[in-house]
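Summary of Year 1 activities. Much of the first year was spent building the evaluation harness for sequence design. The harness presents a backbone, in tokenized form, and records the residue chosen at every position. We chose the following record to illustrate the format because it has been used consistently in internal testing since the harness was completed.
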């Protein structure tokens, strides 16, 4: 799958009226530092930092029903769900310390990447019932491409009113 840049993604969001300039609110450098600290990582992939700076706090109607916006602190939620004894996930998989969980869907599905020495981190997916996470995308840029293929991205909204700031 082709990886999309943040600029291309933003232009497509605006063109398809998923957001307006007013409903895109980014994170500050200080807030990004707090995110890293909260999830115990030293750095993030540059494309993800760029995305955070453009729409990390508010992204119009993007991914309504899923948690993708600041404050992004889903790492503990993932651990609690993954290691929940009631779910009976019998796996020897150990959740990596260098992970950054950036997406949660209603507390039972998660996406994360591993922060390492390179700038292109693969994206992993886990949902309740899976023994261990599986590689989902090669990069966050591919996630952006996938989000544009999400069905609501192609729905024309004739009397669209942006969400409140």
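For this record, the design step produced the sequence shown next.
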């Amino acid at each position: 799958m082709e990886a999309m840049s943040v600029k291309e993604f933003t232009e497509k969001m605006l063109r398809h009226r998923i957001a307006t300039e007013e409903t895109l609110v980014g994170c500050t450098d200080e807030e990004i530092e707090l995110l890293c600290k909260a999830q115990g990582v030293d750095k993030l992939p540059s494309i993800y930092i760029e995305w955070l700076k453009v729409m990390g706090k508010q992204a119009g109607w993007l991914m309504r029903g899923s948690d993708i916006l600041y404050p992004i602190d889903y790492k503990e939620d993932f651990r609690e769900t993954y290691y929940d004894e009631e779910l009976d996930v019998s796996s020897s998989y150990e959740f990596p310390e260098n992970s950054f969980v950036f997406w949660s869907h209603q507390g039972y599905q998660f996406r994360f990447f591993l922060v390492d020495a390179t700038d292109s981190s693969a994206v992993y997916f886990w949902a309740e019932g899976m023994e261990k996470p599986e590689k989902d995308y090669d990069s966050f840029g591919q996630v952006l491409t996938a989000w544009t293929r999400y069905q609501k991205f192609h729905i024309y909204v004739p009397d669209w009113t942006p969400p409140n700031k």
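The chain has a mean pLDDT of 82. Quantitative recovery figures across the full test set are reported in Table 2.
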